[in-house]
């Protein structure tokens, strides 16, 4: 059975939720099997599939660079406020490189496409932009395991990214903010400790 475009829109939230859960399970399986670098292929493949299901016109502008800089500043702020008390352990330098590539490139593009375009758009059409943003941000924060403060920061960052999406900032530009934020957290963690 092939879904028509209007059916894709009607079921967007559910499709995004299923895609997120499937990628999470596949990613966990690949990571537990000791092949951290293959995890990037899970995210890249799912992102390509999401772009094929829900195409969008992508444009690279100077706004993306400014959003990236804002992501670095916000990442540094939250690192010194909260994350400096969290210690990340890496089995090898290969695992660290894979984690950096995932956190700065593959995961942000996937999350921005699926969570804040597909899921948010589906939720917005059903329950409105504000409730949709709250729902997507709650699910996003819940998927980021950690202490209560980590949950709150992830929720806040997701609300900011939802606001960007609702204002028309495209997936790649939001990904630049998100990736720069993630990378700055990891860079501060690597240099500070």
TrEMBL record:
InterPro entries: Rce1/LyrA-like_dom. Residues 96-183 form the CAAX prenyl protease 2/Lysostaphin resistance protein A-like domain. It holds the Pfam family Rce1-like. The chain crosses the membrane at residues 12-31, 37-54, 66-83, 95-115, 149-166. GO terms for biological process: CAAX-box protein maturation; proteolysis. Keywords: Hydrolase, Membrane, Protease, Transmembrane, Transmembrane helix. GO terms for molecular function: endopeptidase activity. It comes from the Bacteria. This is CAAX amino terminal protease family. It comes from Rhodanobacter denitrificans.
